[in-house]
Structure prediction request, 245 residues.
Amino acid sequence: MTDAMTQIKIRLFIKQDLQVGNSVVLTSKQANYLFNVMRLNLGEKLYIFNNDDGEWLSEIMHKNKKVGELVCVAKTRDVDYPQDLWLLFAPIKKARTDFIVEKATEMGVSRIIPVITEYTNINRASKDRLYAHAVEAAEQCGTNFVPEVEELTKLNFLLNNWPSNRKIMFCDEDKSGIRLALNKDNKGPWAILVGPEGGFSHQERDQFLSRKFIYPTSLGPRILRADTAVVAALTLWQSTLGDWL
Ligand code: SAH
Prediction:
């Protein structure tokens, strides 16, 4: 293994019980990555984590081309529990949707729900593919919490079954100037809603504004692309209501 590699903190999301001495069986994809791509050997160490047990240092106990086994050595970090914040976004082109999932994972959402709105022009978003993207983002960026990713859901259905205690920050490009009353009194469960490239229809907007749990919010005077809007909205929310304080 080259020196450069020893500097890289290799991290894998492992959905198994991580406790001192527990052995962890690698998937063939994980074994391939560790042994063929990163060229790790027996006795070498890497970090493993999940949403329940936090991050652990582990040691390679068994390896061959297709399989491998680690042992948990010591806990290194607790779980980075995110805020109780969901992201509802209308899927756009694949690469930009992947970007949205990656940034939402880095910036600390607990749940990601791709939604179908009137102008959504992408009508499929594989939950498994997006979840794998969230896992990869967490492994690479250093957080040890992977948000839940839900199936593509009709926004209307969601709103008609919405938990009454959860506020929605409705990113509304037509309401520049209306600022969400973002202050510490608004603590509690939230969701951020960002529309598709086509924006929201007047009918959708009227429906949103009729619901008291929906707060129209401007992200400034310029129209942002949906992926930019997600990052801007997460920044605004985290810096006023979240854990950036
Ligand atoms: N086609 C629309 C823009 C859609 S941008 C138009 O030209 O008007 C995609 C989504 O990003 C919007 O639905 C909105 O949720 C969000 N967004 C973009 N710019 C915004 C802004 N300045 N303020 C609030 N939300 C914004």
Q: What stands out?
A: The first strand starts at residue 11 and ends at 13. DSSP finds seven helices and twelve strands in the chain.
